[in-house]
Design a protein that fits this description.
Length: about 120
């Protein structure tokens, strides 16, 4: 059990929302930093054009980050579905094995009781 599982649903939702805002803010800062680093090598450009290059670079960096997160989330959902299906199959087989074991124990007991009487 994780710490989040013990929280009420509305508090978990709030936590996830805050976490999302923090991740987005970090991604925006990372994009701005990468853009500034890239544009710093373009000292031959006039300042206004360099700022525009920075803005465009940061926007593209952020779009790529968003796309990467979306692919990761989709893949996570796919894996979750696959693992849930495997878990259901294993649970079904375990239940079948347990019921077979119980049936065998009952059958053995009936044979032993029938032969001793």
């Amino acid at each position: 059990m994780t710490a989040m599982e013990g929280l009420p649903a509305d508090l978990r939702a709030f936590h996830h929302e805050v976490e999302g805002h923090l991740l987005a803010a970090a991604a925006r800062e990372e994009a701005r930093t990468a853009a500034a680093r890239f544009a710093s090598g373009l000292d031959w450009l006039p300042e206004t054009q360099r700022r525009e290059v920075e803005r465009l670079f940061a926007a593209e960096h952020l779009a790529l980050t968003r796309a990467s997160w979306q692919r990761t989330a989709r893949r996570g959902e796919e894996l979750r579905g696959e693992y849930e299906a495997v878990y259901r199959g294993l649970r079904t087989r375990l239940l079948a094995a347990f019921l077979l074991g119980v049936a065998l124990v009952v059958a053995v007991n009936l044979v032993v009781l029938g032969s001793s009487g």
